[in-house]
Design goal:
- With 355 residues, the protein is an alpha/beta fold.
- The chain has 2 domains: 17-259, 3-Layer(aba) Sandwich (Rossmann fold); 269-353, Alpha-Beta Plaits.
- The protein has helices at residues 62-69, 92-98, 117-127, 132-145, 161-173, 191-208, 219-225, 243-248, 253-259, 269-278, 295-304, 335-345, and strands at residues 17-26, 36-46, 51-55, 77-82, 85-86, 102-105, 179-183, 211-216, 228-233, 236-242, 282-288, 309-319, 322-331, 350-353.
- The strands form 3 sheets. A 6-stranded mixed beta sheet has the order 6-7-8-3-9-10, with helices on both faces. It has a 4-stranded antiparallel beta sheet with strand order 2-1-4-5, covered by helices on one side.
- Strand 4 (77-82) and strand 5 (85-86) form a beta hairpin.
- Helix 3 (117-127) crosses helix 4, helix 3 packs parallel to helix 5 and helix 5 (161-173) packs parallel to helix 6.
- The model is unreliable at 6-11 (pLDDT under 50).
């Protein structure tokens, strides 16, 4: 069986995944308890071919959300459409068929210890009625895709954590799904292995066109792989948009907190006071929020104006090939020279004097 792009036939104008007013409340475990509102009136669209990262701290509702998308948990209110099908309304048999187009990757791998690597990848194919020979052939093909063709006869206990996760990815991709769901797929892995797994998921998206919904609490995962991000807090999606837009101009406090783990922002009043004690000259913050300017351009303009400067706070990062971040500089020289230099910097970036 050849590797195919399952999204080629999906209309661009129709989201592959569409949630409308989705609410999930878990029943009370004790008397006089109102239960737990895990997902609260969430509406969210994921276009075909996109990678949507859902991020939030523990208890935000993100893992429950992904379990609702493939009906591992029933919803209380709202509607979930996957490739045009109302998931919540499907019968048991219809749901089993629909799930063949929805792959799932778990944090703890969930491999069968008694089956070989090949057997684990072939298992969902055999369950769907594929012949043994075809299932083994497809499984071998997917093991080659994830770089584990030589481990086909091994058992899970003989693999590293990263190799187990790659087997899990191969198993999820084997039925040619249109949608791949990943729940904290890298949180149990070391940084180097995480990078390898993210690279593999990127290939699945770009080479196979598979749409993804990633559940994570790691901003590095969002930065490396996602095209869009939804920030969850207390069961609600509090911010949603393209990754660069949310990183560069986070509107909600929860989003700003997450972005702050990737790169420092504008100094707080207390931090600004400390900077003034340590540095002379005019303190200004140069903000890169539209992806148009680069750090090098700003430094070149200051150097051309003959204004000495020192970087005293902040940081710069890249998302989707665009620069974002904030640099706080201490500029030396006369007011005339500094103001003249800043006027040229404002041609390419936003400049704010630190109060």
């Amino acid at each position: 069986m050849a590797l195919v792009n399952p999204n080629e036939a999906v209309a661009d104008s129709q989201p592959l995944v569409s949630l409308r007013g989705v609410t999930k409340r878990f029943a009370a475990q004790r008397r006089k308890s109102t239960g737990v509102l895990a997902v609260d009136d969430v509406s969210l669209d994921v276009a075909a071919g996109d990678v949507c990262g859902v991020i939030g701290y523990s208890g935000a509702g993100k893992s429950t959300l992904v379990r609702l998308i493939n009906a591992l948990e029933p919803i209380n209110e709202g509607q979930i459409l996957v490739d045009g099908q109302d998931i919540a309304s499907l019968s048991g048999k219809q749901l089993r068929v629909a799930r063949r187009n929805i792959g799932m990757i778990f944090q703890q791998f969930n491999l069968f210890a008694s089956r070989t690597v090949l057997g684990n990848v072939a298992f969902p194919l055999r369950q769907s009625g594929m012949s043994g020979a075809n299932a083994r052939g497809r499984a071998q093909e997917m093991l080659d895709f994830v770089g584990l063709a030589d481990k086909a006869s091994n058992y899970p206990e003989q693999l590293s954590g990263g190799q187990k996760q790659r087997v899990g990815i191969a198993r999820a991709l084997a039925p040619n799904p249109t949608l791949l769901l990943a729940d904290e797929a890298t949180s149990a892995l070391d940084p180097e292995t995480t990078s390898e797994v993210l690279g593999l998921l990127r290939r699945a998206n770009t080479d196979l066109g598979i749409t993804m919904v990633l559940i994570t609490h790691e901003m590095e995962v969002i930065q490396s792989l996602a095209t869009h991000v939804a920030v969850m807090e207390a069961g609600r999606v509090v911010e949603h948009g393209e990754v660069f837009d949310v990183f560069a101009r986070p509107r909600h406090p929860a989003s700003r907190k997450f972005v702050g783990t990737v790169v420092k922002g504008v100094p707080s009043p207390a931090e600004a006071a400390m900077l003034r004690e340590r540095h002379t000259g005019k303190l200004v913050t140069v903000s890169f929020t539209d992806g148009a300017a680069s750090q090098g351009e700003v430094f070149q303009k200051l150097g051309a104006a003959g204004v000495p400067f020192e970087l005293v706070y902040g940081g710069i990062n890249e998302v989707q090939g665009k620069t974002f971040g904030h640099l706080t500089l201490a500029l030396q020289g006369s007011d005339v020279a500094v103001d003249g230099a800043l006027s040229t910097v404002r041609e390419v970036a936003e400049v704010t004097e630190v109060a």
